[in-house]
UniProtKB/TrEMBL annotation:
<feature type="modified residue" description="N6-(pyridoxal phosphate)lysine">
    <location>
        <position position="208"/>
    </location>
</feature>
<dbReference type="InterPro" id="IPR005786">
    <property type="entry name" value="B_amino_transII"/>
</dbReference>
<dbReference type="InterPro" id="IPR036038">
    <property type="entry name" value="Aminotransferase-like"/>
</dbReference>
<dbReference type="GO" id="GO:0009098">
    <property type="term" value="P:L-leucine biosynthetic process"/>
</dbReference>
<dbReference type="GO" id="GO:0009099">
    <property type="term" value="P:L-valine biosynthetic process"/>
</dbReference>
<keyword id="KW-0663">Pyridoxal phosphate</keyword>
<dbReference type="InterPro" id="IPR001544">
    <property type="entry name" value="Aminotrans_IV"/>
</dbReference>
<dbReference type="GO" id="GO:0004084">
    <property type="term" value="F:branched-chain-amino-acid transaminase activity"/>
</dbReference>
<dbReference type="Pfam" id="PF01063">
    <property type="entry name" value="Aminotran_4"/>
</dbReference>
<dbReference type="InterPro" id="IPR043131">
    <property type="entry name" value="BCAT-like_N"/>
</dbReference>
<dbReference type="InterPro" id="IPR043132">
    <property type="entry name" value="BCAT-like_C"/>
</dbReference>
<dbReference type="InterPro" id="IPR018300">
    <property type="entry name" value="Aminotrans_IV_CS"/>
</dbReference>
<keyword id="KW-0100">Branched-chain amino acid biosynthesis</keyword>
<keyword id="KW-0032">Aminotransferase</keyword>
<dbReference type="GO" id="GO:0005739">
    <property type="term" value="C:mitochondrion"/>
</dbReference>
<comment type="similarity">
    <text>Belongs to the class-IV pyridoxal-phosphate-dependent aminotransferase family.</text>
</comment>
<keyword id="KW-0808">Transferase</keyword>
Length: 363
């Protein structure tokens, strides 16, 4: 392995190892250890299974602050067995594709909620930019695939007490992302049962805390037993629609007042403030073609709208899927929505959507 300072050029011959001063926060202090063994790049690998040759790691401790960021060959982490991220789930992540957008607001929000230290946004962005620059050959040559960026922040506190971490590790992985859902169908099926709750008021539903996802697995496999691909998460006595799997949910419909509306649940602490959700809201508001609303939607409103054929389309949104039309919903064991109910997919198939998305992705 070769160690370079502040440079990503493999041809660099200056191989000094700088002394490891503490409390570095600057991308200018970035150290680079190049991998001596580059992997063979697959065409497009299954989502999240094959990682690029390098990763970014930045260590923090209460006593010493942030150490210099380090890009190093991709490899395992070594963690103390008492590490509090393993025991108490003090871990969160965000993810972005390399398109023009990234969300650091969510990163900061999640760090605060997990009692992990703050990291300077622009310095981190610059370190990530340089990681991507180094592994740029991994960016898929395909319109339907992308390079996925996974910043992850964990407590490395090596003791069993439930307390604010005194040590932490911020690291960033890159992997190729093709189709997120392993499905041959063009639409997604969702299983809705109010007995499973993804998030609640005062909880961490609006952060990317690891536990939100681990806890959702049981319901996901229940959904699969019912022949569905994902869970439609409901909340409250009136069965409000909140999210679908790991996607924000949109309903394009003729609402109760007869208006054409694109609606999605409001950010009230239950909902993950998705970048794609925000982008769709901004784009469609700009079109001015229909009402765009952040509002509560309940299952009974959806059922009535389906009966009265007022649903134009329902879809999920997320970085991984972009937008994914929903084709089937099983609610309390019954299909309320299936291919026999005509929805026009007018949103996800619309030309304005596709061209705006490509050229206008808001930052
Ligand atoms: C629970 C949840 N909702 C929605 C989203 C979509 O967010 P984004 O558009 O930022 O990818 C995600 C993405 O991870 C998620 O985990």
């Amino acid at each position: 392995q070769i160690v370079l300072r502040g440079s990503l050029h493999r041809s660099d011959t200056e191989l000094s190892v700088p002394e490891r001063r503490c409390d570095h926060k600057q991308a200018a202090d970035l150290l680079v250890q190049l991998s001596s063994c580059l992997s063979i790049k697959p065409d497009v690998a299954e989502f999240g299974t094959v990682f690029t040759d390098h990763m970014l790691v930045i260590e923090w401790s209460l006593n010493e602050g942030w150490k210099a960021p380090l890009i190093k060959p991709f490899g395992d982490l070594s963690l103390h067995p008492a590490c509090s991220s393993l025991h108490y789930d003090i871990v969160f992540f965000v993810f972005n594709k390399i398109i023009k957008s990234s969300s650091f607001m969510l990163f900061c929000l999640s760090a605060k909620r997990a009692c992990l230290p703050a990291f300077d946004k622009s310095e981190l962005l610059e370190c990530i930019r340089r990681l991507i620059e180094l592994d740029q050959d991994w960016v898929p040559h395909s319109d339907s695939a992308s390079l996925y960026v996974r910043p992850t922040f964990i407590s490395t506190e090596p003791s069993l007490g439930v307390k604010k971490p005194s040590q932490a590790l911020l690291y960033v992985l890159l992997c190729q992302a093709g189709s997120y859902f392993n499905t041959n169908t063009e639409t997604l099926s969702l299983w809705a049962d109010p007995k499973n709750i993804r998030a609640w008021r005062g909880g961490t539903g609006d952060c990317k805390i690891g536990g939100n996802y681990g806890c959702s697995l049981f319901a996901l496999y229940e959904a699969m037993n019912y022949g569905c691909q994902q869970v439609l998460w409901l909340y409250g006595d009136d069965n409000q629609i909140t999210e679908g799997g790991t996607m924000n949910i949109f309903l394009h419909w003729i609402n109760e007042d007869g208006d054409e509306e694109l609606a999605t649940p409001p950010l009230d602490g239950l909902i993950l403030p998705g970048v794609t959700r925000q982008s769709i809201l901004e784009l469609t508001t700009g079109w001015g073609e229909f009402k765009v609303t952040e509002r509560y939607l309940t299952m009974s409103q959806l059922c009535s709208a389906l009966e009265q054929q007022r649903v134009k389309e329902m879809f999920g949104s997320g970085t991984a899927v972009t937008v994914c039309p929903i084709g089937r919903i099983v609610y309390m064991g019954e299909y309320i929505f299936n291919e026999s109910i005509q929805t026009d997919h007018s949103f996800t198939n619309s030309q304005p959507f596709h061209s705006s998305w490509a050229s206008n992705f808001p930052s």
